[in-house]
Amino acid sequence: MTQRIIIDTDPGIDDAMAILFAFRSPELEVMGLTSIFGNVSAELGARNALTLCQLAGTQVTVAQGATAPLGMPPRPHSDYVHGTDGFGNIDWPQAEGVIDPRSAAEYIVESVNAYPGEVTLIPLGPLTNLALALDLDPSIASKVKEVVLMGGAVHETGNVSPVAEANIINDPHAADRVFGADWPVTMIGLDVTHQVLLKTAVMERIEAANPVQGGFLNQAAQHYFDFYRGALGVDGCYFHDAATIAYVLDPSLFGCRHGRIRVATEGLALGQTMMAPEGREFPTDGWADRPLIKVAFEVDDVRVLRLFEQRLSEAL
Ligand code: BDR
Ligand code: CA
Predict the structure, then answer these.
(1) 240 CB less than 6 Å from ligand 1?
(2) Which end is more exposed in the chain, N or C (fewer Cβ atoms within 10 Å of the end residue's Cβ)?
(3) How far apart are CA 111 and CA 113, in angstroms?
(4) Which residues constitute the domain of residue 92?
(5) How does pLDDT run across 249-301, given as a tens digit for each residue?
(6) pTM, 2 dp
(7) Whose CA is nearest to atom 2 of ligand 1?
(8) CATH number for the domain harbouring residue 62
(9) Is residue 124 lining ligand 1, measured as CB closer than 6 Å?
(10) Of all atoms in ligand 1, which is nearest to the CA of residue 165?
(11) Order of strands, edge to edge, in the sheet holding 146-150?
(12) Domains in the chain: how many in total?
């Protein structure tokens, strides 16, 4: 049986990699894409999602989500990483298509209620839409199959501040709400995504094998590669959003530990994901009443990259 998934996304170059990876995986049924501000605005995110559907040769529900975080003013979009178009400034023609009249949160609530126990939510941006969905209908917490999110950093250095990862710092209040809800969350954060380097040569091979989708991704990725080359001196990019899809396809690629997560919602540590490991007790308030979630710390980078390359390259 295929797994039903909803991808909540701010596309975004690595979001595009994740979404095409998912569309090309027969084990997954992508029910819909919901947009969120982050790499781009929520409006542009929804239009980019339509473009990705067109590239994948399919049409699923695309719903627009929140335009700003819950408890603070929005931070600027990260166009220096993803380009002002979210796709590396490649001037790709925007697809026609209809954006669903429901908000992302409404769409998530309706979909989870329609298929209780079956839907996996995969947020690849700030967690605002998920927090709003929980507010709209708290019962969805007991009805989702799993929430597999890209975000956070426990032991690894952050990528927006020394302690904060981009998706979490963009809405720390929403993230604290999502980590505090009683639903099965798996966090795929920088602790693992910084162990997987997608090299430029792999994207070239994918383009050669799959000129349309691979060509789009490789063109878009050039901006991303430039950013990583300049910022960190690496030949490629870290494998953030697409790592969630690899996890959903094959959790054995990752090693996880359980812990309780709080998110710093103010001060210098804004956006830090702070984990109390399972079994440890602290004479400090704040964590004890939090649910245990799964946090990925180990990853088989070779197998993850092989799976991504295979899925993006094979003839369908
Ligand atoms: C995350 O931040 C965004 O810029 C990427 O798309 C990814 O979701 C990595 O920190
Ligand atoms: Ca993203």
Answers:
(1) yes
(2) N
(3) 5
(4) 3-313
(5) 999 999 999 999 999 999 999 999 999 999 999 999 999 999 999 999 999 99
(6) 0.98
(7) 166
(8) 3.90.245.10
(9) yes
(10) 10
(11) 100-103, 61-64, 28-35, 3-9, 119-123, 146-150, 185-188, 293-299, 254-263, 273-277
(12) 1
Lookup: tokens for 176 = 């604290």
Euclidean distance between CA atoms 261 and 238, whole angstroms = 23
Does the structure show a pLDDT above 90 at 1? no
Catalogue the active-site residues: 10, 240
Q: Please name the residue whose Cα sits nearest to atom 4 of ligand 1.
A: 39
Judge contact between 41 and 77, C-beta under 8 A.
yes
> At which residue do the structure tokens 């559907």 appear?
53
With a 6 Å cutoff on the Cβ, whether 12 touches ligand 1 is yes
DSSP string, 189-236: -HHHHTT-EEEHHHHHHHHHHSTTHHHHHHHHHHHHHHHHHHHH--SE
Compute the distance from residue 255 Cα to the ligand 2 centre, in Å.
Answer: 22
Per-residue pLDDT tens digits for 124-137:
999 999 999 999 99
CB count, 10 Å around CB of 174? 28
